[in-house]
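Cross-posting from the modeling subforum.

Setting up a comparison between two proteins and wanted a second pair of eyes on the formatting. Protein 1 (sequence, then structure tokens):
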Amino acid sequence: MHESTAIDEAVAPRLETDSLGSVEVPGDAYWGVHTARALENFPISKRPISVYPELIIALASVKAAAARANRDVGALSAEKAEWIDAACQRIIDGDKHEQFVVGVIQGGAGTSTNMNANEVITNLALELAGYPKGRYDVLHPIDDVNRSQSTNDTYPTALKISLALSLKTLLEELELLRRSFNAKGEEFRDILKVGRTQLQDAVPMTLGQEFHGFATTLGEDHARLTETIWLLSEINLGATAIGTGITADPGYAAAAVRHLNEITGLSLETAPDLIESTSDAGAFMSFSGSLKRSAIKLSKICNDLRLLSSGPQAGFGEINLPPRQAGSSIMPGKVNPVIPEAVSQVAYAIAGADVTVTMAAEAGQLQLNAFEPVIAHSLLQSILWMRQACWTLRVNCIDGITANVERLEGMVASSVGVITALIPFIGYAQAAAIAKIALATGRPVADLVVESGLMTREAVVRQLSPKRLSGIQPVTMAIPVIDLQAEPSE
């Protein structure tokens, strides 16, 4: 280690120079001139890239893998590679994330993000090695940290890694939410209710079946999102500017992906066609579509929860959502379904982000897509919001849902939909006639069937048991032949 010659950096800024000229940089900043220019050029989103820690970790992982690969092929000294690797590991562990200050929306295909990473890693490495910030004659952000790289291969590679890392956390929350719905399905397994199609009364089912259906939907979405990981496994690291690999050693790409897999624990592989991989954003578009699918289906479930809990007096009133906050500044006692409402709004935002990703993917020209920063922001925000939405839906809503058993039983008892279960015994025409009378008079279907002589009370009770009404214990039999030409018996 070189002994430190650093002065108190807080007392004065330092002067850094690029091809456009010199810029003063705060003395305590780990970023440099290129980042300073980006801060001036892109004061748009007011959101630095550090809001997505997985992206910062992914960038550091790429830079560490590149340093190791450059050392392996002889393009970087072992000492410099060690300095860079150590700095990257500090960032992977969570250090200096606040130094990644460029905005999430930026021109230049992510060049500002790449240079922000190069500069922070360089100055942190210099500090760890005992040198002051800005000693680029010792370790250089471009010549050393960015050796054998271009923004055009490091940025999309880091984006895919960050999406894979973020997706894992989303999948964990989605699975916990599925389990919560499944637990409610077990809790409500014997509670009969009236099913509905097109918002009209249909045949009976159990509340447990309804919640098990929600759980199955989430399980399917978990499987579909898991499948998208393969979309993110093919990277173009080693492609450099346009996919030709210019400035990189022939052995660099293979070494870099090997080290990157060791660092991230992922199963990444070099794309077979680096020209195509550098210009195409189709993987991001497909990933976005799967994310939108899951979000929209989750919103549909939230819509159902709001309907089922509507009221509590003049609505469905079948279930109770946990009261989370006062619902009105004017109506006393009103409580709104705020958690499902928030989750649905997340779904709308994700659907909008999918449109953004689609347009950005289409807008790339020739050998590069310059709009990957907005793709990155759209996808990482969507994953983050959906993960948090799954958490709040589970913790603040699903786990506390209760059933209004008496109301459910009353609706089943008065529902003409139960007549459907008797069709195998009395036929459709007779069932329709009795249903019409039941609707007109409000009398129970069971009583009308027994009075008509079509079935005994015992048989009706048996066929209208909860298990048979809900299909848990299915009944299939031939309908007795009715001779419409025969004379009525005396």
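Protein 2 (same layout):
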Amino acid sequence: MVTENVSQRAVVAVVYVAAMFMSVLDTTIVTVALPAIAHDFEVSVAQVGAVQVAYLVALTVFIPVSGWIGDRIGGKRALLGAIGLFTLGSALCGIATSLPELVVFSAIQGVGGAVMLPVGLAMLFRVYPPSERVQLSATLALVTAIGPALGPVLGGLFTTYGSWRWVFFVNVPIGLLALFWGLVRLKPHTQPSPGRLDMAGFLLAATGFGALMTGVSEGSSVGWDHPLVLALIVAGAILLVLLVIVERRVDRPLIELRLFRNHLFTSATCLYGLASVAYIGGLYVVSTFLQEALGASALEAGTTSVASAVGVIIGGQLVSRVLYHRLGPRRLTTTGLILIGAGLALMAIAGTGTSLWWMRGDLLLLGLGVGAVFIPSQAISMATISSTDTGKASPIFNAGKQLGSAVGVALLASVLTLTTAPNVNSGNDGGALFPFHLAFLVAAAVALASTPVALRIRDSEASATMTRSKDTAEAG
């Protein structure tokens, strides 16, 4: 029985990690290919941005309903079906013959991604006890860091030496292998009495989050004072307020707002989202800064960004094997946010004559901080959530990260856009560097301003995750 349980934990972990890798890789690999796509389809780069907006909107719209889908048709069917949809969408993106086709196919990817991550995470936390979640979270944080860092490298290689279509095709073999492994080894799991779909909640969540995400995504490119952007953000906010009112009155709400009464879950979700604002937003600025300000090639920029993943690898080992069980999540996450802030702030010192090794050192420090925040946040997120509520809690936790990532990119892209115009033509290197330096400082400020959230964590509530399991203790 023990061997059977261990085997099933490994199966769920392999399938979920493969799905997670495809999803997080997509956050940066497509960005590098946008100019090539625009050239092939004879449109502007701004127009091609609709591809990423479609993906993000579809992702945000369907995340809230993912928990109900997983409980309704079973975790195995929901997870593998979502992986299949994401893989199909990737393949279709790769063979798209026009921009409208690519936008539609990217939305299909987003629907698959919206379901596979929350459902997979819920399945993981059902088969892994709290005492083993720190080690598990170290692996998940590693994938979360490697995907965005590896994206520019692969994107640069594919677009330089091959075709932009491979930024989508790269997902196909990973998805097919995950599907085959899951079909053969994954065991079915269903939740009792999932209930009927809260249609009012779904419609309000879909339109509210969809409008808000579209407004946030478009605001950085067309301007935050654009009438359409303002209308979308205001409409999204109003719809989400209505969502809260409706969900508090129905018996089986789509989004269990009562979960926010859980202090540990709320703290972990907020931390994961806020750290994503700084980390994903920071990586977005780093890639542009290295190429446009420091004169690095796309490949040099990509290989330099990998230093953040190396930091997460080192930090992950330290946190999961040594520090977490001794210091607890409160002190670790607080320290991690300070390290993230320091790494980003140090990048604001870099100039045109700065060595790439300075940036690599800063990115290494950033990665160490990310590991110290992401791993404890994931480990404690479901520590006090019942198995029955895990399917409801997982989409909320994932939505926090996705929203944080989108806000991070939009916020820092806006900083670059708003501060570049008056300086670019000045012929002053300092003026040209100012927008990037300010963006790094804004990202650092977000990380440092998040420390009060970390300080609110009570280690006593996370005690189950701080106890080493027998297997983990022997491995350490």
